[in-house]
Design a protein that fits this description.
With about 230 residues, the chain is α+β, with helices and mostly antiparallel strands. It has eight helices and eight strands. A hairpin with a 5-residue loop joins strand 2 and strand 3. The longest helix has 18 residues.
């Protein structure tokens, strides 16, 4: 089973597997309080019961239960905020100018415009404490400092007319994947061992992050996130 999880989730090219990977990497990293893990486990257990092996069957029988996981959803979208799976581009056109914050007009004719989601998602203009993993920001009310009034600032599936038509499917896949995987397995990165084997000389971290993103067509975790997967006891 660990081998299946490793090959099925961690090395698949799709967006959903990468999102699952980053959720796991964040949750099991040293930077996240154990309270996040415990809360996810307790919420899922209260919904699908304490028997881990029966969770999948119950979710198949009663798929509406997935709509009763608001904190799990918050963890997913917060992960995609910090680690967007991709950015997007637009073709410039004559007469279409981008106005910079200081009022300059930037023509786009003949240019390819790149919407950098990573930068937008960590911009202090839109987010409080943008570099912190705070799922509670997605459950915050309007009076909370973490509340984000600009809904266009989260662009993991793009926004507006170009919004990804597969967004609902991706979230639907992520919820049961986390509900089952996080209760059944422990995942620990093995970057230290991997670096020794590879005699790595390039940067080991970016802003303290071992699983930082690299662009390879789309965004992927550094070195594919070498890890050890074990059954929870």
């Amino acid at each position: 089973m660990p081998q299946y999880v490793r090959s099925g989730y961690f090395f698949s090219p799709g967006m959903t597997p990468r999102a699952v990977l980053y959720v796991i990497a964040i949750i099991f990293s040293q930077y996240i309080q154990i309270s996040v893990i415990r809360l996810l486990w307790s919420i899922t257990a209260s919904l699908v019961g304490p028997e881990i092996d029966q969770a999948a069957a119950l979710l198949i029988e009663k798929p509406y239960l997935l709509n009763q996981l608001p904190y799990t959803f918050a963890v997913i979208v917060e992960t995609l905020r910090l680690y967007p799976a991709a950015s997007s581009t637009r073709q410039g056109e004559p007469g279409l100018d981008i106005i910079s914050p200081d009022g300059r007009s930037c023509p786009t004719d003949g240019l390819l415009i790149w919407s950098n989601h990573f930068a937008i998602h960590r911009n202090e203009e839109f987010w409080q404490r943008p570099d912190e993993f705070l799922p509670q920001r997605w459950l915050a009310g309007k009076d909370d400092d973490l509340y984000n009034a600009d809904k266009g600032a989260w662009r993991s599936f793009e926004h507006g007319p170009r919004n990804c038509i597969g967004q609902e499917l991706a979230i639907l896949e992520l919820k049961p994947s986390l509900a089952i995987t996080l209760r059944k397995f422990n995942v620990n990165s093995t970057y230290n061992k991997y670096n020794k084997i590879r005699a790595r000389k390039s940067p080991k971290t970016v802003d303290g992050d071992r699983a930082y993103q690299i662009l390879f067509g789309a965004a992927h975790p550094n070195e594919g996130f070498p890890c050890k997967v074990s059954l929870r006891t």
